[in-house]
Write a structure and sequence with these properties.
Number of strands: 10
Distance between the termini: 82 Å
Number of helices: 15
Order of helices and strands: HHHHEHEEHEHEEHEHEHHHEHHHE
CATH architecture of the largest domain: 3-Layer(aba) Sandwich
Radius of gyration: 32 Å
Shape: globular
Keywords: Membrane, Transmembrane, Transmembrane helix
Number of domains: 3
Structural class: alpha+beta
CATH class of the largest domain: Alpha Beta
CATH superfamily of the largest domain: Vaccinia Virus protein VP39
Strand order of the largest sheet: 2-3-6-5
Length: 370
């Protein structure tokens, strides 16, 4: 039988005498839930009065743990450096030689492609560094032999010899894109809800049959609206339509099976983030289901829902060729924005086209009547 008399406790339990007295009184007169706060205060009191040296011991112990983890990590790194696998020049030569097969995908303009500049070689695949890859094209060091090859890259079907080629996003890109998504959502600046000028985005109205969208006033494109305002602007647009009016909503949406911040998500985000002055992050977060639900909330009759990704991709490819071949358009763009921006914009246009062609992005056109 356990004693509850404080005087009968062993000497080693003398510091806990107040605790026994508290338990004896509390359980008989006070609701059990009120005991926890008293126990906490009593524990702190006992700790400070009976064991004033515990805090210092805990701090020292915590410091020892941190130091031990650091030393173990450093030791493992040194062991890996000393005894890890090493490749001789003879072993590396075939890997670098395989990179020459990338000339079927990339064309050097000023210098030869060097395997160490844009590539990280692995046993079964090649990692194409996104930062260096974009920089080489924008700075006119490399060119895409065929813009449609980006589709193979996005689908992990691009090969250099027997090695597959994949995009490599470092931690900086992940932080940068995540920050842009958050800032884009908080962006409350006023933007036009109609399609912008031809220099910045493709005019897709001609992709629709004339009978569907006879007037720009009855067509709303969600791609250029700040993400945080999509819902309110869409509802205002639906509310403003006269009774009996036929209208069209078109927008880009990423495939719903692509997880947030995955490599495919980062690939989809690039063409919108790098053209942040004209584009928003809305295409990454708007969904067809949500748009349909909003339209039906207003008792609209939906006439058709069409996926026009293939047509939209071809329109983007045509736009990029026009920017390259049309001398007047090319000269005007370069005079206004510079040659570097001209190359970057062309790359992002075909990048977006490749995303639509592979199904990572979808172009939806919803026609309805009020």
């Amino acid at each position: 039988m356990v004693t509850t008399d404080p005087e009968l406790l062993p000497p080693i339990l003398a510091p806990f005498t107040p605790l026994y007295a508290l338990i004896q009184t509390k359980f008989s007169s006070v609701h059990p839930y009120s005991l926890f706060s008293d126990l906490s205060s009593l524990q702190q009191s006992l700790r400070l009065s009976q064991f004033p040296h515990l805090t210092q011991i805990e701090q020292n112990f915590s410091g020892l743990i941190s130091l031990s983890i650091l030393l173990v990590t450093l030791a493992l790194a040194i062991l890996r450096w000393l005894f890890g696998p090493r490749h001789t020049k003879a072993e590396r030569a075939p890997q670098v030689l395989r990179c020459s097969n990338l000339t079927s995908f990339l064309v050097p303009t000023k210098s030869r492609i060097t395997g160490t500049s844009i590539l990280t070689l692995h046993p079964h695949w090649i990692a194409l560094d996104v930062t260096t890859f974009l920089k080489c094209i924008i700075c006119n060091i490399l060119e895409l032999r065929d813009p449609s090859h980006l589709q193979l890259l996005f689908q992990n079907r691009l090969y250099a010899g027997k090695l597959s080629v994949s995009l490599l996003f470092g931690i900086r890109w992940r932080i940068r894109i995540f920050h842009w998504c958050m800032m884009s959502y908080a962006d409350m600046r006023q933007r036009s809800i109609v399609l912008p000028s031809e220099l910045y985005a493709p005019d897709t109205l001609h992709l629709l049959p004339p009978i569907i969208s006879p007037s720009l006033r009855n067509t709303l494109c969600l791609d250029f609206i700040p993400q945080s305002e999509v819902e309110s602007i869409l509802r205002n647009f639906l509310h403003s339509l006269p009774l009996g009016t036929q209208a069209t909503i078109e927008f880009t949406a990423r495939d719903p099976h692509i997880p947030f911040m995955s490599d495919s998500f980062l690939t989809c985000a690039l063409p919108f983030m790098l053209r942040y002055q004209q584009r928003t992050s809305a295409p990454l977060f708007v969904s067809l289901t949500r748009v349909i639900d909003t339209i039906t909330d207003f008792k609209m009759k939906i006439l058709s829902v069409t996926n026009e990704s293939d047509e939209y991709a071809q329109e983007l490819y045509t736009r990029e060729r026009d920017m390259l071949i049309d001398r007047a358009l090319r000269t005007r763009f370069i005079q206004q924005h510079g040659e570097t921006v001209w190359r970057e914009h062309r790359l992002m246009v075909v990048w977006e086209a490749g995303l639509h062609a592979t199904g990572l992005l979808n172009r939806w056109v919803v026609v309805f009547r009020k």
